[in-house]
Amino acid sequence: MLHLLPPRVPGVSPWLPWLAAVSLFMETLDATILNTALPSMAASLGESPLAMQSVLVAYVLTLAVLVPLSGWVADRFGTRRTFLAAIVLFTLGSILCAMSQSLAQMIACRIVQGIGGALMLPTGRLAVLKSYPDRDSRMEALNFVALPGLIGPILGPSVGGLIVTYASWHWVFLVNVPVGVLGFVLALRHMPQLSDPSARIDVQGFLLVAGGVLLISYALEMFGEHKLGAGATTALVVAGIAAFALYVRHARRAASPLFPLAIFGNRAFSVGILGNLVARLGSGGIPLLLPLFLQLAYLYSPAHAGLILMAIAAAALVAKPAVVPLIRRFGSRTVLLVSSALVGAAILALAFTGPGTSNAYFVGVLLVFGLAVSLQFSTLNSSALAGLPPEHASAGNMLLSTAMQLALSIGLTFAMLVLSLFMGRNFHPDGAETFAAYHATFVTLACVSWAGSLVFLLLGERKRPA
Question: Where, per UniProt, does this protein localize (predicted)?
């Protein structure tokens, strides 16, 4: 259940859940508000719209790399100091993004934003977990914190589209500034300074995992932008896989590894990690592809495209309450297989569009897509964590969060890689070639989505959350 007001507990500031909630809202809004602004940003910076995926990937990839460090940083330096520093970095990154004069500058500033984001949300959640004394009040507070995370993606595309249509893309970033200033002032007064100076971090393990993530992501992105050949791309991917293999060797010997290997003995958790990665290959790039498709092929305004994209998040919000009852009734595997089939079908339906396709068709397809994606990933993530023993709960949550961000980064990169391969080096934003390239991309992603769902067959017949 989602609570509209946080719980009142003696000794805990009622503003604490609001701080964590606002940080989540800023992150989720920022993750979707750019989607409808990318074509305008590309024109302003003198870049191809296809190259603008780097702006999204840089932010998400920074989150994936640094989230494993967030808990240690908050314990080592205290929740208040860490949260304040995170807000400053995120807000400063937003200002610098608005001032960027080139794609390279924009990517660097998005990394600054990502560093702030990687510290901000986990620290807020950690403070809530440690401040509320009993399970019921903790769950009530965390449910309250989750509400803005559902609202942000709904508002993002439309707000971004309206800002670009009636102002300029710079304000897409500047809207974070007043929220950041307010959050900083409130955090000074209401964020508790909770710390654990004895906390330790597996530095070698972190460097190996981070190295593997960066090598593979960089290789795929550069190959998609035709900046790396097949040989160099393969070499970087192999190097990334080798880094992960070295981590496995390290984790077997380390007393306190970053992610204990025993955690993978839980089949539902292992499928949850693998499922996130393969499922995002098919669906992760759709929220980026569609704004480009609607604005470049149909010449929709950013505001028009943003309103259509709201259907995805609105359907996802409606589907949330149905997740647990469906899992209890049919089991995780059945829900995952059916939702995956619907995801692929919705993506395939986008391949049957043309110059005369109506808004109603797009909205209908996106409602199905949003509903199915919400069921798919909510089931996948809840089932992954539900069966973990208490000693692995913290590491499992951190690893799943990292895998989710990495999967989103790979999904964005893979979708743009497929589109760039079908488009080639020549880009014709209003030609028939554009429709053909997008249609081929949607067909490919639908097939990938269906093929990836086979991993869910590894789950037992009736796995249910504890």
Answer: Cell membrane
